[in-house]
Specification:
The chain is mainly alpha-helical and 325 residues long. It has a domain at 53-274. The chain has helices at 17-36, 44-52, 55-69, 77-92, 99-123, 128-146, 160-163, 171-189, 191-201, 203-208, 213-239, 246-249, 252-262, 274-294, 298-319, and strands at 4-6, 12-16, 165-166, 169-170. β3 (165-166) and β4 form a beta hairpin. The protein is globular.
């Protein structure tokens, strides 16, 4: 499940990629806090704030991992996040009694969109980039035409999802941790997970072995959309209402792919895992926090993050002897 890093001798080391990424993230964050003298960032509150930065992108990244592992990809997640956030606000209208119906409706819509993506990719043979990009554009078009301004608000009690916690940790962080562990268990300890790796690593071989590869691709897309919908609910709770541009402005489609790749999952499929993705989003959160501590310009942030992604992909490509990382 985990990739191996290169040692100085050129031979693979026994240190898993997620461990390396987490160590880099911790070093960057600690160095930035010490260099800027912002020691409060090293307190429990500062670390908790850092972890909260990982939730929205992390949830999307977990789902994206499943799609990439089967050799697919999902570019509709950003539009889906916007749709869910707007739908949750529109259905709740601040009424606590509408929390459960709204959440159920949002998750059902997410599953339906994931199923559409899966059918287009697995059963219709459409390239996943084109299929999911098309789905995302349709969703964004409908949103832009139907909601040109903020409409409704989530119930005050629902905001506890983003702002309250238990056992000294925010509910959102606990949920992300639980889903990461569930994803790890599903991929590492179940036949379903083993079959996902088989489908992504060698689709023709998996088909010859008797696996219905289309079903696993469909399942992966449903999981990706379901987790993106969960991220949309979290953002609606955090911002108190949804907007048609929240997913697009967050660049959740491209950045979710980036953290998956940085975490050691290769775009060709069949190799990687959600623990690496969690490490990748922690690295992104540490970079953002460090940039803020140093007062780095917003546009320069994007340049630096892009450069880091390119370097990471180049390193993984060399390590995997030419495979696309």
């Amino acid at each position: 499940m985990t990739s191996r890093a290169l040692s100085r001798s050129g031979r693979p080391s026994n240190v898993p990629v997620p461990v390396i990424v987490i160590a880099i993230a911790a070093t960057i964050y600690l160095a930035a806090a010490l260099a800027t003298g912002q020691m409060a960032q090293l307190s429990l509150g500062g670390v908790t704030g850092l972890l909260q930065r990982t939730v929205a992108l992390g949830l999307v990244g977990l789902g994206q991992t499943f799609a990439i592992l089967v050799g697919s990809i999902d570019l509709s997640v950003a539009s889906l996040i916007s749709l869910v956030a707007v739908l949750a606000s529109f259905l709740m209208q601040g009424d606590p009694g509408m929390i459960l119906p709204a959440v159920a409706a949002c998750l059902a819509v997410s599953v339906a969109i994931g199923a559409v993506n899966g059918v287009l990719v697995a059963y219709c043979g459409i390239n996943p980039l084109i299929a999911t990009l098309g789905t995302g554009l349709i969703i964004q078009g409908v949103l832009s035409a139907s909601f040109t301004f903020l409409s409704g608000a989530v119930a005050p009690q629902f905001q506890a999802f983003a702002y309250s916690g238990a056992l000294g940790a925010p509910y959102s962080v606990l949920l992300f941790t639980a889903l990461t562990l569930a994803g790890w268990f599903l991929l590492s300890k179940t036949r379903f997970g083993a079959n996902l790796y088989a489908v992504g690593g060698n689709p023709e071989g998996a088909r010859l072995a008797g696996l219905h590869t289309e079903r696993f691709i469909l399942s992966a897309h449903i999981i990706a959309s379901l987790l993106a919908g969960t991220a949309g609910l979290y953002l609606a709770a955090r911002l108190q209402s949804g907007t048609p541009w929240i997913g697009r402005d967050g660049i959740y489609d491209l950045e979710s792919i980036a953290i998956v790749v940085i975490g050691g999952t290769i775009l060709a499929g069949g190799k990687g895992g959600v623990i690496g993705t969690a490490a990748g989003v922690l690295l992104f959160a540490s970079l953002d926090a460090s940039f803020n501590m140093f007062g780095v310009d917003a546009f320069l942030k994007q340049v630096l993050r892009g450069a880091i992604i390119i370097v990471a992909v180049a390193i993984y490509a060399v390590r995997n002897k030419g495979h696309v990382a």
